């Protein structure tokens, strides 16, 4: 049964998942973080699935190279949060060269997704949270696109998109996450089958949300901008 606490947890996922994890990391002095609100175009990969590309990707604050995945993500316009010294950012919100764009985050209840032909509105664009029940046996793995570079890739069905290059099983403190660690994602509309498609997510922890649980976001609860720069 859904509770107001569950709904609230997901509604503020954008700030809590980054800020609470970030503050925890800062307290352990493991890696530096510098969270900023960036304004302009950004790729929102929270509801995207990805594909391995056979390459390795470097991450700030570590010498470990991670397996790389490519993700197709919708482009939004507005304010988003980024870690400008995390991912592979260069210390500011300044976009990457060659008309590049950063993958950052803002909490949204509706995100265009490939699984439903990139619909912008309505149930087909809904992006509820889901906790993938990863185990060593099922080998579910997530992709972390937060604060990583992307290239603009035109439009699909009227939605501007970017191709983002992101590490697999990399935590927000730039460390490998052990296989079998459950993770949260907004990809797949709570269908467990999408947990095997390297969905964008992170291994954040909520005491009252269990692996395999779907958490709906109230319609209109957090949406402000839509792809293309329009507003709700």
Can you give keywords for this protein?
disordered N terminus, single chain, 232 residues, 30% strand, globular
Offer a quick outline of the entry.
The chain is mainly beta. It has helices at residues 4-11, 13-28, and strands spanning 35-43, 50-58, 65-83, 100-103, 129-132, 148-156, 159-167, 183-185, 201-202, 214-215.
Per-chain topology:
Elements: H1 4-11, H2 13-28, E1 35-43, E2 50-58, E3 65-83, E4 100-103, E5 129-132, E6 148-156, E7 159-167, E8 183-185, E9 201-202, E10 214-215
Antiparallel strand pairs: 1-3, 2-3, 3-7, 4-6, 5-8, 5-10, 6-7, 8-9
Oligomer: single chain
N to C succession of SSEs: HHEEEEEEEEEE
Beta-strand fraction estimate = 25-35%
Radius of gyration: 16 Å
Distance between the termini: 30 Å
Largest sheet: 6 strands, antiparallel
Low-confidence stretches: 1-28, 220-232
Residue share in helix: 10-25%
- What is the count of β-strands? 10
Secondary structure category: mainly beta
Global morphology: globular
The number of distinct structural domains comes to 1
Average residue pLDDT = 84
Number of helices: 2
What would you note in describing this structure?
The chain is mainly beta and 232 residues long. The protein has one domain. It has two helices and ten strands; from the N terminus they run H-H-E-E-E-E-E-E-E-E-E-E. The strands form two sheets. Strands 1, 2, 3, 4, 6 and 7 form a six-stranded antiparallel beta sheet that branches. Strands 9-8-5-10 form a four-stranded antiparallel beta sheet. The longest helix has 16 residues. It is globular. The two termini are 30 Å apart. The N terminus and C terminus are likely disordered.
